[in-house]
Each structure stands twice: as structure tokens, then as C-alpha cells.
Design brief:
Phenylalanyl-tRNA Synthetase, Chain B, domain 3; 4-stranded mixed beta sheet; 4-stranded antiparallel beta sheet; alpha+beta; globular; 6 helices
């Protein structure tokens, strides 16, 4: 699957550090097994200790994402990026959702890096896909949410319309046990080096824990 992913100039005019990392691969999502659960068990205690002594805005890459939302005109206090929502669950001692191997590894990498990640069924996307700001009146039912107000939110859209965002993805291209061709996006408002590190970790985690094949990865950023 050759992705055609772009970022709208309007986003760059507001946030020059905006970038997207991407991975495409083939996988057979399944209920998460012992290896994925063990990875969470190794990460969560250390993360919980750090969260207990660190303000959320000071967590790596999360403060940058919040500032990116503000630059686009979206209140990050009301519409939290998904990595912050995950951190809040960990800090409160709540159980994390278990969905399937792809989605769970997606969330593991988000916890480890502070970036929001989205994974999408490539058979339900129309290329190209564009990161742009949400238009007045745009919304969709999010996964596990009745309504996501997309106006001014950085979002991923194709010819059919919005399909995902750093806050909550649409059900249209969500990963199910029937998904095979998958796109994972890392939403970044951080310096390039931080995204490069996250991409390397994501490739390793998906290969080792989600059994992906035909993995390719790359980055979309402003060309100076």
C-alpha cells in the first residue's frame, strides 16, 4: 500500500513544526496475547511513577500537541489529545481498554512517546488523505464517543470526509479483526528528532508485538 499523505498549508502557517509520521503494513489483528500484556506491564509502573510527579503539560510531546491545538483554534482542555486521555487513565489507576493487537500496540507506543497515534483500515480510505483543520459544522461519531466536534481541530480527511484526529477517530476506518492493510499515523507538533525516535520505536513495537509484514514508514513535513 503506497500512502499519499499531505498536510494543508493552513496547518503549516499556524504550526510550522507540524509533521506526520506514518507506517503501512499488513497484519491480522487478534486479541492481545501475553507478549503485548507483558509489554504494558513493564511500561505502566514506570510511567505511573513519572506521571505522579510530572504535570501533564510537561510530559514529552504532549505539551507540544496541546500548543498545536491552540494554534489551530481548538481548546485542548475541552478536546484532549488521545495521549493525554491515556495518561489520565494511567494516573488515576484505571484499566486501559483492550481492543486488538494493532490498536493495543498503537496505544502502547502513544504511552511511551506522548504522541497521539491513529491506526486505520486502508481498505476504507481513499487516497490522498490530508491533515487539515476541521471546517465549521464538521463532526463525526468517534470510536467510543457519540459526537466529536471537528471545527478547527487538526484532522485527517479523504475524499469522503474526516476519518480521524489526534483526539478520537471515526468508526469508518477503525481496525477490526477483519482489517488487513493498515495505516498508522503519528500526529506530531514536535521537533523532527522526536518524531524520528517515535517512528523507530513504533516500527519495532509493531514488528515484535503485532506480527506485521511488508512494513514501510516515512514522514510528511514542510519542505523548506
Amino acid at each position: 500500500m503506497q500512502p499519499d499523505i499531505r498536510i494543508d498549508d493552513d496547518i503549516f502557517s499556524r504550526c510550522a513544526e507540524c509533521r506526520l509520521g506514518w507506517l503501512t503494513y499488513r497484519a491480522e489483528p487478534r486479541p492481545s496475547g501475553n507478549e503485548i500484556l507483558a509489554a504494558f506491564d513493564s511500561v505502566l509502573p514506570i510511567l505511573k511513577t513519572r506521571l505522579d510527579s510530572t504535570a501533564l503539560a510537561d510530559m514529552p510531546n504532549l505539551g507540544e500537541s496541546r500548543r498545536g491545538y491552540r494554534a489551530c483554534g481548538k481548546d485542548p482542555g475541552r478536546w484532549r489529545v488521545s495521549s493525554e486521555a491515556l495518561y489520565r487513565r494511567v494516573r488515576q489507576g484505571k484499566e486501559l481498554y483492550r481492543i486488538n493487537s494493532v490498536v493495543d500496540v498503537n496505544n502502547l507506543v502513544s504511552l511511551e512517546t506522548g504522541f497521539s497515534l491513529g491506526s486505520y483500515d486502508g481498505d476504507h480510505l481513499q487516497w490522498p488523505v490530508m491533515l487539515r483543520r476541521g471546517r465549521p459544522g464538521e463532526s463525526y461519531p468517534g470510536i467510543g464517543k457519540d459526537f466529536v466536534d471537528l471545527e478547527n481541530m487538526p484532522l485527517l480527511a479523504d475524499a469522503t470526509g474526516p476519518v480521524g484526529s489526534p483526539t478520537s477517530d471515526s468508526a469508518r476506518a477503525m481496525i477490526t479483526l477483519e482489517s488487513r492493510r493498515i495505516l498508522t499515523v503519528i500526529y506530531s507538533f514536535s521537533p523532527r528528532e522526536a518524531l524520528e525516535d517515535a517512528l523507530r520505536l513504533a516500527c519495532l513495537r509493531f514488528q515484535m508485538l503485532a506480527g506485521v509484514e511488508e512494513l514501510e514508514s516515512g514522514m510528511v513535513e514542510r519542505v523548506s
